[in-house]
Design brief:
With about 525 residues, the protein is an alpha+beta fold. About 35% of the residues lie in helices and about 25% in strands. The chain contains 13 helices and 22 strands. The strands form six sheets. The chain has a six-stranded antiparallel sheet with strand order 15-16-18-17-19-22. The two termini are about 30 Å apart.
Amino acid sequence: MDGLTFYKLINILKEKLINSKLNTLTINNDSVFLSFYAGGIFNLEYRAAPAPPVLKKVTNIIGESPGAISAIHGAHVSDMDTFSYERACFIELKKRKASGKLLTYKLILEPAGNYANFFLLSSEDTILYSLSPRTIDADRNIGAGGKYSLPKANKKYTLLKYDGAVSFNELSGFYPVTAKYADMLLEKYSFAESCSIIQNNLLDDKFYIDEKGKVIPFYIENAVKVITYEELGDYFCVKENKSASKDISRKIKKLYTLKRDKYLDLAEKLEQELNIAKKYQDILDEAELIKNNLYKVNVPGKYIFEKYSEDGICEVEYNVEHGEDLQKKSDKLFKKASRLKKSIPLIEERLQDTMQLALFSEEQIFYAETLSEEELSEFEKILDDESKNKNKKQKKEQLKPFLEYIGEGFRLYAGKNSASNHELVFRFAQSDDIWFHGRNIPSAHIIIRLEGVELTDEIIEFAAKVTAYYSKYGSENLIDVDYTYKKYVTKPKNTPAGFVIYKRFKTVTVKPFSKQEISDYGLLKENN
């Protein structure tokens, strides 16, 4: 559930639930059931998993009430609101004890995709209960007894503070689909006017369904249906006919999330090693200092050594420990400095390869989120074949052709997944073809093959815009794209299909093609 839809839903529910009584709250697996009395029984289910999370009206409640939860039964709702347009809200509860003391509690709902969660807090925002250990912020403490804090906002602009934003995808609460419809308003209105229109739409009780069944919380042209909040849950249920592909997607994402995190941990360790290695000069300086002043030392103690540098000679104090052999120490320091200096290019190369593997893993996560059901099924077969070490011929027969566009004096080819990228770059492309890829972001691999013409800025821009569209951030305003000759793109030994490293490249910054432009060029994946 996106931030805007959640914001609108909470505003609708707020009118019904303020001053109501919470009869019962129960937990059943990853669902929280809340039964209120608001002029009649009013039941809600907040399902945190499986994704997408949803808050919907239900007839019955099921589950049990853990000890900390049962204490709030009978409390009254004193306040309810969202935290701006982020996917999080609070329900403030007040309950008077038999002694007359008034206690305050808060329920926190965080329907943030795969990291959805639920919390019960004390009046001091101490966590009394959390539904699961899921959190999008690794450094956030969400265990019982910890102090609750909101997840970090991942966007700096909102519908109220938008100066500097050029696309609604930069605003909190929007995701690619809602941002796409919001950006359509910019064809008729200014950014400020469009924000105002959407804000007004968020105050009514209508939700709009587009041709693909996506829920849009503000008015869109050509909506196939208009629904109320009571029907909203149906559009966030896990459809049975899509459950298999979602299972595959989750499997791929889980696999490559573990790989990515492993590579990022390794990269962090390598950076630490690199920082140590780059301090070899300090060790070398100490070795030189000892060597040049060795003649002065005869017993343990403090000595004034002469230190030689480009700036001249200066005096430094040096302490010689009892039993310390300065000759041996100097020799060891020279060897250590030499070893560290030689290790720098090796560590740098390994660090670069590790970061590329992390980026490659991120790219597979991106594919798992964007491929069609058929492509996901094919992707899973390829992964299974690789893990079982089956012959390459069988894998090749399973691959679908990559996308192709014929331009004036050139042909453009686009990979559709990691295996397709590998086929395109290392089995189809020629050494003098030009290769394109998003800079440090997951994207399709693009090949340009010239046919009797020189490489022009127009061809580069065209290929870069296609690359940008088929990247993880294709809905953003500007994307950096690297390009180089295919001969400078290599696949290291024992790395997975689709993984590459490259050199001698240039970078161009472009605005991605729109979906309509990609469709006009015949490059939409669903058209192939």
